[in-house]
Structures are given as structure tokens and as C-alpha cells.
Design brief:
Blueprint: H1 19-30, H2 47-57, H3 61-64, H4 70-88, H5 104-119, E1 126-130, H6 136-145, E2 148-153, H7 156-168, E3 175-179, E4 192-198, H8 207-217, E5 218-231, H9 240-252, E6 259-260, H10 261-270, E7 274-280, H11 297-312, H12 320-340, E8 343-352
Parallel strand pairs: 1-2, 1-4, 2-3, 4-5, 5-6
Antiparallel strand pairs: 5-8, 7-8
């Protein structure tokens, strides 16, 4: 299997830890059956073994530092969590700032439409979604701008899901998806009028390489917008709690290593871009993006019992319980990252190719 994801979770990524909130009721609300809680393109029998393979990467940190290992890590991760993310979080695998009086669905849509507006997209233009996941942002941006969006994801199961969603939404005439590696995109030089990534390039082992690919496929004078996962100025590498939080986020979201807020803009410049905006959208007056991750212990244990029962009955694959537990722990780390202010999933860069 070739290619890069994000799915997603750019991204939204990681993000699907919120699933722990909804597992008991979301299936009925979304019309999805418990039998759809699977393992992506893995067989039901493979889910548990692939979870242990994924977890083993983080037992040997040097494996994570090897760029060649990262595509398999990310692809395995999204096979394990894609159905869970969709069931509990929706089709946009990313966070968004809370907006008083707005539903989460509306908050998500506004956050995505902002990308289209920053790119100044016009009807008929071609834009690439770098790490599209199952295509929630793609559909919002295409509908909002009437531009043609091509998404790329590493995970072939997500390609199938995105194409199905595009067709059901009546947007397949504007949206297409390919399975590929966003470090080596199968597109011609200077072929797109815009590019974006939403919480997706955090999966890149070498950020400059993916930025260089975006630079290559973008037409001169056109824009690239990205929401990046970063550590903020409040992060202290000598603070054990801070380090534990960041490592927990990396483990639970298939990240080869979070970058600092200072790095991302400099890396974009090194790739050849002019950086027009470089700021954290999570800062006040923005409202907390992590509010949906808050969950009581009672709700978690209730959900855990439901999943364990589905797994015991053979309705959900073996290994789903382990994945749920991992996502719950990740939700706690993400929440603490937001509360302490040491982590942001929405550091904005607006870049122009000269």
C-alpha cells in the first residue's frame, strides 16, 4: 500500500479520540450499524495483531525516528481508527475552535470554509487536499467555493470511504480522491490553483519534504494554507508533565514527533514559500477547541463495557477494545495539552509560491 493519510485529522486528524464520548449512542444517531465498527482494509482477524504492531513502534523510539517506517505506521493507524473516528466524530478528522451558539457541525464547517476563503478560491479552480482522510473538509470546501478538489490519502480504505461520501453528497463531480504518498504526490508540476492541509502534515517524518512537494505542484503566485499540530511557547522540555502530555499525543495519533510553533514557518520558508500569515488560531479570543474531549469516567466505563460486549459477541473485531482504550488515553492527553496551553492543533500558515 502506497501513500500518506490524513485523513483526515489534516488530521482532523487524531482527533477521533472523542469517539469515547459517543460510542453508545452515535451509531443510532448516524444510522451506522455496530457491524461497521471494523478495521479499515484489515480483515476482522487482523485488527488485534495490527494494534499490537502499532503499539510496538512506540516501545522502540528509534523506529519512529526512521522516516521509512512512518508510512506503514500511519497506514496501520488509520486502518485501526477510521471507522471509530467516523462513528464518534464525523467525517472531518480535525478540531475547530468552539463558537458560542454554534453546533460542533457548524464549528467544523466554518473552520473548513475559512481555508477556502484564505485561498481565495474561485469556481472551476483546482485545489489539492494534502491528507484528505474520508473527505469531510474536501466536500465543505468544494461546496463553498465550487472549486475542484483532489484529495490524497495513504489509506486505500479511506479512499473508498471518501468516494462513497462524495457520491452520496452529490459532490463527486467536484471531488476526487487518490491513494498516494503526500511526500511523493502523483501530480504534475505547477498543476494546482491552491493547496491546503488540515491537521495532516503532522504525520510527515520530514516536514520540509511534504512542503516541497506542495510547492512543486502549486502554480506560481498561488497559495497554500495549512493547520499544523505544534508545541506552543508554553511548552517546557524540562517539565516532566509537559513531556508526558506530548508523548501521549504522539503515541495516540501516529506522530513521528511534534514540531514547535517556531519551526513550521521556518520550514515553509526553507521549502521556498513566502509566509504571509503565521499564527495560532487556538489563542484567545478563540474558545477552547478541546471542550468535546471532556468526558467523565462513568461515561468511559459505560462505553468500554459496550465495546467489550460487541467484541465478545463477535460483532466488533477483537482488538477494538484496545484501540478504544488508546483513544481514551489520547483524549486525556489532548485535553491536558489544551488546558495547559502547551499544544495547539491549529497553528495557521498561509504561504505563497513566488
Amino acid at each position: 500500500m502506497v501513500g500518506w493519510a490524513m485523513v483526515g485529522l489534516a488530521g482532523l486528524i487524531a482527533v477521533g479520540a472523542y469517539y469515547a464520548l459517543c460510542i453508545a449512542g452515535a451509531a443510532e444517531q448516524r444510522g451506522k450499524r455496530a457491524v461497521e465498527l471494523g478495521g479499515g482494509s484489515l480483515t476482522r482477524e487482523q485488527v488485534k495483531s495490527h494494534y499490537h504492531t502499532y503499539a510496538a513502534f512506540f516501545e522502540k523510539p528509534k523506529q519512529i525516528e526512521t522516516p521509512g517506517n512512518v508510512p506503514k505506521l500511519v497506514d496501520t493507524f488509520y486502518n485501526l481508527v477510521t471507522d471509530i473516528y467516523e462513528w464518534g466524530w464525523g467525517q472531518s478528522f480535525h478540531f475547530s475552535p468552539a463558537v458560542p451558539g454554534k453546533s460542533h457541525r457548524d464549528e467544523t464547517r466554518l473552520h473548513e470554509e475559512m481555508v477556502a476563503d484564505l485561498l481565495q478560491l474561485k469556481p472551476g479552480q483546482r485545489v489539492v487536499d494534502v491528507g484528505c482522510g474520508v473527505g469531510g473538509p474536501m466536500r465543505a470546501i468544494a461546496a463553498h467555493s465550487q472549486s475542484h478538489v483532489t484529495g490524497i490519502t495513504i489509506n486505500d480504505y479511506q479512499v473508498a470511504r471518501a468516494r462513497s461520501h462524495n457520491k452520496k453528497a452529490g459532490l463527486d463531480y467536484l471531488c476526487e480522491v487518490v491513494c498516494g504518498n503526500f511526500m511523493h504526490m502523483p501530480f504534475e508540476d505547477n498543476s494546482f490553483d491552491g493547496a491546503y492541509s488540515i491537521e495532516a502534515t503532522c504525520h510527515a517524518p520530514v516536514l520540509r519534504d511534504v512542503y516541497a512537494e506542495v510547492f512543486r505542484v502549486l502554480k506560481p503566485g498561488h497559495l497554500y494554507v495549512t493547520y499544523e499540530w505544534v508545541t506552543t511557547p508554553k511548552f517546557r522540555a524540562d517539565n516532566p508533565e509537559h513531556v508526558e502530555i506530548i508523548h501521549g499525543i504522539e503515541h495516540g495519533d501516529a506522530l513521528p514527533g511534534l514540531r514547535s510553533y517556531k519551526e513550521v514557518g521556518e520550514i515553509a520558508k526553507a521549502a521556498g514559500f513566502e509566509v504571509l500569515e503565521d499564527r495560532d488560531l487556538a489563542l484567545a479570543p478563540a474558545h477552547p477547541w478541546w471542550k468535546r474531549l471532556k468526558m467523565g469516567r462513568l461515561a468511559y466505563y459505560r462505553n468500554h463495557v459496550v465495546i467489550a460486549l460487541l467484541s465478545f459477541l463477535g460483532i466488533a473485531p477483537q482488538g477494538v477494545v484496545d484501540v478504544h482504550e488508546m483513544l481514551f488515553k489520547t483524549a486525556l492527553h489532548l485535553t491536558r495539552g489544551g488546558e495547559t496551553g502547551i499544544f495547539s492543533p491549529m497553528h495557521l500558515l498561509v504561504c505563497r509560491k513566488p
